[in-house]
Amino acid sequence: MTYRSKPTSNGVYRIKVLNQDLFIESAPGDNPGLKLAFPSPTSDKQKWTLTRVSGQSNVWTMVSVEDGHGMAYKKTTDTYWGYGYPYPQNGPSLNWSILERTTDGQTFSKIKPKGKSFCFDSCDPGSDAVHFYYDHIHVYDFPKQCFVFELVPNPSTPLDIMFLQDATGSQQPYIDTARNGITQICNTLLSGEKFAPQDLRFGLVAFRDHPPEDQSFIIQEYPFTSDVGSFTSNLGSLRATGGGDGPESQSDALSAAYKADWKDEATKVVILITDSPPHGIGENSDGFPEGCPLQIDPLHVATRMGKAGITLYVIACEPSLGQYKRARDFYQGLVKKTGGKVVNLGDLSVLPTLIAGSALEAVDSEIYVAKYQAEVRRMANDQKMSAGEILLKLHKDFVAAGIQHTTLVVDNMYEQRTQGDWNADIWFNAENLNDAKNKIQEVEGNRILGKYQTPGAEQSATVEMHPISLAQVETVVQKCLMREL
């Protein structure tokens, strides 16, 4: 086993006494607590989800893997010298300082309630219970105050990412940035230790348009590969040109992505990078106003994606996409059918972060879908609870358990308009384009905020761990209910 002197990333850990084969284990019951126990590598009682508290140094939450109970503490006179003791409560974790120290030639950590001087110990004669005691300097004085950490590897869950890349005249900077950012994307995906490099596969569908709007190609398909160099070469071979009218062959690319050779057990993510809408949504100057010449309906494809567990993210290249009257709302409704999002891109430098953050959001969402789908279906079918009721109950449970979710934090570039939200819902609820496009009421004016109306305006984007939000739980519930069993 490999032990580290402190946790280095969010994850599941076993916590071991420095020089002894003893591990911190939850001790449930009428008076729950912790104890030191001999190793039991498969027992969830010895596994703890440690999550770094944003904005604070060396501060973590601690949650039992066995039951989702968060670590709390009591200070009573009944425990060793009245210092109190830690215990897993049916609720969120308090904040805990995990402080690395080097003493007597050994490096380890002390675990303390944030802001307190006393730490974990187990020195009450005749007892294996964990309690608090004052912090001693030397390892040999109080060895059971000194801990090291074993990161429990996640079960290998493959991640398949299919890029749908607009290859028309305006897109060369985006193609080049995606190609040059592949290493950064991979590093971000691998940084959380959720995957090994061989777990990642990338595929590509490049698209332009149907003739006579474009005479080169409608789509070009490059199958999934785990060879990052090969994928980078595929991206590098694209040259953005042509396209004809405004709308392009996104519908054909979506259909190809749906039919791709996805691994059954993989988290399945489609990243559509574009500055235009597909044919047939009611935009002016559409060479195919009735939709794709091959009669591929993007709403129908997205519905099938959602049922198949494929999550669609649209990276909207702004301010170009915002010049279309219907594209924004259409894409909002389209991605919602899969549990995905529209992500705004104004600053090319953040494109790799947007891609990696979108994929990691989908990965976390899929973890909770796998864990709670049966429960959500029972609440819907047996208890006759509405989706809204399930959402509120599950969110309350998640908050109480201190559940964290990867979150892509990106600047908002759009002014919210009620009519735009209604339009997005119309697209989301429609089975096909003809059902929706005559019901759409176009939103007047430019909704892009003033500072982002200039191409290349500086934009902030980060990937962070946050307490799971109501919107993220809503996505989990939606996915649980839409999926084919």
What does this protein look like?
The protein is α+β, with helices and mostly antiparallel strands and 485 residues long. The chain has helices at 172-180, 182-191, 228-236, 250-258, 298-308, 327-336, 351-381, 387-400, 418-429, 433-436, 470-482; strands at 11-17, 23-27, 33-37, 48-52, 59-64, 70-74, 85-89, 95-103, 106-113, 118-121, 131-134, 147-151, 159-166, 200-207, 219-225, 267-274, 310-317, 342-345, 404-410, 461-467. The radius of gyration is 26 Å and the shape is elongated. Helix 1 (172-180) runs antiparallel to helix 3, helix 2 (182-191) packs across helix 7 (351-381) and helix 8 (387-400) packs across helix 11. It starts with 10 loop residues before the first strand and ends with a helix. The strands form 6 sheets. The chain has a 6-stranded antiparallel sheet with strand order 9-8-5-4-1-12, with no helix packed on it. Helix 5 (298-308) links the parallel strand 16 (267-274) and strand 17 (310-317). It has 11 helices and 20 strands.
Question: Which key terms come to mind for this protein?
Answer:
11 helices; elongated; 485 residues; 20 strands; 26% strand; alpha+beta
Topology overview:
Blueprint (H helix, E strand, L loop, with lengths): L10 E7 L5 E5 L5 E5 L10 E5 L6 E6 L5 E5 L10 E5 L5 E9 L2 E8 L4 E4 L9 E4 L12 E5 L7 E8 L5 H9 L1 H10 L8 E8 L11 E7 L2 H9 L13 H9 L8 E8 L23 H11 L1 E8 L9 H10 L5 E4 L5 H31 L5 H14 L3 E7 L7 H12 L3 H4 L24 E7 L2 H13 L3
Parallel strand pairs: 13-14, 13-16, 16-17, 17-18
Antiparallel strand pairs: 1-4, 1-12, 2-3, 4-5, 5-8, 6-7, 8-9, 10-11, 14-15, 19-20
Helix pairs in contact: 1-3, 2-7, 4-5, 6-9, 7-11, 8-11
